[in-house]
Write a structure and sequence with these properties.
Blueprint lengths: L3 H5 L4 E3 L11 E4 L4 E13 L11 E4 L4 E4 L16 E4 L4 E3 L11 E4 L4 E4 L8 E4 L4 E4 L10 E5 L2 E7 L3 E7 L4 E3 L11 E5 L2 E5 L9 E4 L4 E3 L11 E5 L2 E5 L8 E4 L4 E3 L12 E4 L3 E5 L11 E13 L3
Length: 317
């Protein structure tokens, strides 16, 4: 019979107490409690600093420690929607105000980083595009198709815009100067999640009605991917085509799912409160969720998703 060392190249240590610090992948035998233990990486959501301007249907870009929030709506149904031009920057613990958008709008999408961001589309249907340099927004060449509540991903010089309302599957690619037409989505929809890059994009969920459909973009065309476990619209996400998180959505979902390039898996970690119309940024190991409704304080809640190493006891069954 093969030993663990022969299989994994590591000898299991016998220790009288659990080691500290621990790292993912560690494994040992605790001779005092006489059990086999190891370290397992587990993701969890925790509260971050609140947005200064509460809102929903906002745009997001950047990372967990350098996030960017812009636009959105500062009122909820049945009040008339009030589009916002507010921009905020996250430093990993708190939000500070940045330069305002030139065109206030809700249902806006974005790409890029905190110091090189891109904002496009919005409701009522607009083609307006703006670039952010870390302090101010500059209006640049517009999109071809006016729409809001679609999907966006990529970077400031290589972005992807797809779908939206009025219901469309139209896709456009941005090269840092101009927008050009890309391959259309198989299922036109609005209020879905979008992650990835210009040549490896991901679209999931959306509606109406709420769907679990996932599509993958290869730089020229969209193909079907694995379906979400929970159909929902007004959803957000973070990550890449082969490693994405999907979180939130309506009707006020707290569930988080992870995509591996083939299928979605429901994670044990859920948002602190079910919410929709939120924004996201970051990666599958370090994500940011912010804004949306309803939450205890409408539209200003921020949550951080982080992978944490925890000790696990191995048992036989």
């Amino acid at each position: 019979m093969s030993t663990f060392k022969e299989i994994r190249g590591t000898l299991i240590k016998s220790l009288s107490s659990d080691p500290s610090p621990i790292s993912n992948g560690d494994i040992w035998y605790n001779s005092t409690s006489q059990v086999l233990k190891g370290v397992q990486a587990v993701g969890a959501w925790s509260s971050g600093g609140n947005l200064n301007t509460a809102r929903q249907r906002l745009g997001g870009a950047g990372t967990q420690t350098a996030g960017l929030a812009f636009g959105g709506s500062t009122t909820t149904f049945p009040s008339p929607p009030t589009p916002s031009s507010a921009t905020e920057e996250y430093n990993g613990s708190s939000w500070t105000n940045g330069g305002s958008l030139n065109t206030a709008r809700r249902g806006i999408k974005g790409a890029g980083t905190q110091t090189a961001g891109l904002a496009f589309m919005g409701t009522p249907g607009t083609t307006a595009t703006e670039k952010y340099n870390g302090s101010s927004w500059t209006s640049v060449n517009s999109m071809s198709t006016a729409r809001g509540d679609g999907g966006g991903c990529g970077i400031q010089t290589a972005a992807l815009a797809f779908g939206g309302n009025p219901i469309t599957g139209a896709t456009e690619e941005y090269d840092g100067t101009n927008w050009t037409a890309g391959g259309s989505m198989a299922t036109g929809r609005r209020q879905f999640g979008g992650t990835g890059t210009q040549t490896a994009g991901l679209a999931f969920g959306g509606g109406p009605p709420a769907t679990n459909i996932t599509e993958e973009y290869n730089g020229s065309s969209w193909t079907a991917g694995g379906n979400l476990n929970t159909a929902r619209q007004n959803i957000s996400g973070a990550g890449l085509q082969t490693a994405s998180l999907a979180f939130g959505g309506s009707p006020y979902v707290a569930e988080t799912e992870q995509y591996d390039g083939t299928s979605w898996t429901v994670l044990p970690a859920s948002l602190g409160a079910g919410r929709a119309l939120l924004a996201g940024a970051g990666t599958t190991s370090s994500a940011l969720a912010f804004g949306g409704s309803p939450v205890p304080s409408f539209g200003n809640d921020t949550e951080e998703y982080t992978i944490v190493a925890t000790t696990k006891t191995f048992t036989t069954s």
